[in-house]
Amino acid sequence: MPPSREPNRQPVPSTRRTRLRHRLAELRGPAVPPQPLDARALAALAANPGCRRRAILDGAGVNKAVLASALGSPSAFGQSQFAFMRGNAFEARVKADGGAELLRLVHEKLDAEAEPPVGGAVPDLGASGPEGRTARTALALREATAAGGWTLLDHPLLALEVAGSPAFLEPDAVVVHPDGAWTVVEIKSFPMLDGSADPAKVGAAARQSAVYVLALEQVAARLDPAPEVHHTVLLVCPKDFSNLPTASAVDVRKQCSVTRRQLERLTRVEDIADALPEGTCFSPDLPAAELTAAVESVPATYVPECLAACELAFHCRARSRAEGAVTSLGRSLRAELGALTTVTDVLSAAHGHTGDPEDPTVEALRRAAKLRMEALGTPSPAMGKGDAAPGPARGAGNGAAGHDGAAPDNEPQVPGPSRGAGNGATSHDAAAPDNEPQGSK
Predict the structure, then answer these.
(1) Which of 26, 147, 154, 239 has CA atoms 20 to 30 A from the CA of 59?
(2) 3-state class (DSSP) for residue 261
(3) Where are the alpha helices (DSSP H) in 172-198?
(4) How far is CA 2 from CA 5, 278, in A?
């Protein structure tokens, strides 16, 4: 009888993805469940690709709302149960009777030349776990494409790799046309009045839909031949003040291009994690001082648009203001100031203490500072006490310089040719919300 062989006790080498998954779990906290990364968060991340803090927190599945509360800067984001229930009720109405009304809207708005949908197929997409649901969705898409009829995929699950980490996305619906093309359908509860909706809300929905289109393109690329993924999505909303559905075709080619480019610029989550100090953890159960140190160990890039897109915005804004970073005043102003990255540098250059006089930025700052001093009738810090510049009485020029030169929200006064031009208050470049609470339709 041959001698029995000893079992192989050598550990099975873990794959790179498994190591990354374990590393992200350590950062999140072993007992903390991961927060899923949805399309809205991805669109916000793509709008600010230079923020490593958001990249690692989203990649690790950290609940940023809970983290912000633990840091003492609770988020203003909330979830209205009324809006949530209203959105779910409207979506159920749109998809009733096997999605007959939804398929009719797709046919009417996007594919009027195809045969009218009669009894479209609605495959079962149920499976265990996100990987199983993703595989089931890919199989259903392949079968529907080969079938040559109308098919409605209700809440399919798609996967998109972001900064080396997979993100699972769940669009409201995907419709497969008789010619095999795929269309993303986004259902929102804000109204369309006389055929048009709030541009800001439509823009936010377009950026969110663009993420789904990119994920669908990755699924289509694995098929031979690859089916067409439409870059025109269908936005379904209530008509006027009723609960009846109406729809509009939205071209998201620009949003797809911008989102793809921004996501490619993101630093890999694995690289960010490797640069963190040993033992870093973002669990909200940690002491406040230790948690703050962990968060501050990851550099952030705060801009005013973050207030509409990130739960940590108040914490990052306070830190940015304390450091005097000009990015807290907006991207446009930051771009105009060039190498001057702090408010202290800007004021020093404006008052003639530092900076190259031949630099156009420095020259513009000094000219603006001089005009401000003349308007207020106060001497420049670089002048002597008896060298006050002549000018109108104090306050005569405060229409240009603000209320006696005081910046809003206690922000430092920064003289410049375009004061406030980049404060981001009306910018639609962020993945901003459509003024609906997160989680609502």
Answers:
(1) 154
(2) helix
(3) none
(4) 9, 49
